[in-house]
Design brief:
Strand order of the largest sheet: 1-2-3-4-5-6-7
Low-confidence stretches: 92-107
CATH class: Alpha Beta
Helix content: 40-55%
Radius of gyration: 19 Å
Largest sheet: 7 strands, parallel
Number of helices: 18
Bound molecules: zinc ion
Mean pLDDT: 89
Length: 381
């Protein structure tokens, strides 16, 4: 039986102490939605605040996760900016996005791959049309805020609710295409600066609105350091600013003590980004790191050591283990992670990325149960 609330558990772990047991990072809402309402109802996902709030509450109270994140997919901010600006929604949009595999959108080489879709913004003239989104008015943002508010009423302070805080690279990818983001940073800084300015302002406003609704931490991406390596990354001030804008993350920390969990989303090794993340952490102690599956428990343990005193989350393989493995495979991976990353706190057990809607319920349950069964402090396994 748990001896503390999920909120207390995560807080202690974040402080580098050992709570009653290892916390479990919240399940992903699209999977949880499919469990409650069926895969075929995914088109309504994040269009109905009450249903989405119910998913968040179910993830915590029924599934046993220690937090809930209102994270529908990667496009709400790009859509909201388009709506605010009177532009059609981007071609890579929610209606076309079926998250049946983790990494659907991220498998390619961000810097060099050809564009996907037909980007809404192609020229400076296009970019000059965009204005910041109003989180209470545009796109699906009001639904996400309302869902947070409703879930907070049920979960109170016992379970922490996470917010969605997107960086300019993610939003820019939706507006321009990934490759064009980097081409613009190289050849058309004026165009890119416009995207960046509008994204940062929109994400900041949305972050504040979610905090008001009850969110206590944020989730965002850090795409580049792991892909291009720390040295290359840090040598490009414009990449650093796009991947980690202090006006967004650091401002939320300084003003609201609002910590951000950065997700290094990659199918390849991420450890090459370590020095860059260390640099970010030096400027913003409110960061934690939700790492991809590559390298398994050893890579996560090394990350935890190198990025001290930050907390790390992860990193069960979302496809090989969560989707194709059995509950005992999930248990085995969880036990290894708990052994290698659990001692001393600063660790939450979870998958290495979002997972498929086809991940069996029993596998997610096995992950949560493993934390209960084997993650009790002091770790004895
Ligand atoms: Zn990911």
């Amino acid at each position: 039986m748990d001896k503390m609330t999920a909120g207390e558990r995560i807080m202690m772990a974040a402080m580098g102490q050992e709570p009653d047991r290892v916390p479990v990072f919240g399940v992903f809402n699209d999977w949880a939605w499919a469990q409650l309402y069926g895969k075929e109802s995914l088109m309504d996902y994040s269009l109905d605040a009450e249903k989405l709030a119910k998913v968040m509450v179910w993830s915590c109270k029924e599934m046993g996760c220690d937090s809930a994140v209102v994270l529908p997919d990667v496009h709400p901010m790009a859509e909201a900016i388009c709506e605010a600006s009177g532009l059609p929604v981007p071609s890579v949009r929610w209606k076309d996005f079926i998250p049946t595999d983790a990494h659907t959108l991220y498998e390619g080489d961000l810097v060099n791959d050809p564009a996907y879709g037909n980007p809404i913004i192609q020229t400076l003239k296009d970019a000059e049309k965009i204005v910041p989104a109003d989180p209470y008015k545009h796109g699906r943002l009001p639904v996400l805020i309302k869902a947070t508010e409703l879930a907070k009423k049920e979960l109170k302070d016992e379970w922490p609710i996470g917010a969605m805080v997107e960086n300019p690279i993610s939003v820019g990818g939706g507006l321009m295409g990934w490759t064009q983001v980097f081409m613009a940073m190289e050849k058309d800084m004026e165009l890119w600066k416009k995207i960046e300015e509008v994204t940062i302002e929109s994400s900041y406003r949305f972050g504040i609105a979610q905090i008001k609704a009850g969110a206590v931490f944020g989730v965002s991406h850090t795409e580049l350091p792991g892909r291009v390596g720390s040295k290359e990354f840090l040598a490009h001030p414009e990449w650093v600013q796009a991947d980690y804008p202090p006006e967004l993350y650091k401002r939320l920390w300084d003003e609201k003590q609002f910590g951000i969990s950065l997700h290094a989303c990659t199918v390849g090794p991420f450890v090459d980004g370590m020095d860059a993340w260390k640099t970010m952490l030096e400027h913003n102690p409110g960061l934690s790191f939700f790492m991809a599956e590559s390298g398994g428990a050893d890579a996560l343990a090394r990350t935890k050591e190198e990025l001290a005193p930050a907390m790390v989350m992860g990193n069960i393989h979302p496809v090989d283990i969560m989707l194709h493995g059995s509950p005992s495979d999930v248990e085995e991976a969880s036990v290894e992670l708990i052994q290698k990353c659990g001692p001393g706190g600063r660790f939450q057990l979870g998958p290495g990325c979002t997972y498929s809607l086809d991940v069996p319920y029993e596998n997610v349950k096995a992950m949560v149960d493993s934390a209960q069964k084997f993650g009790t402090y002091p770790i004895k396994i």
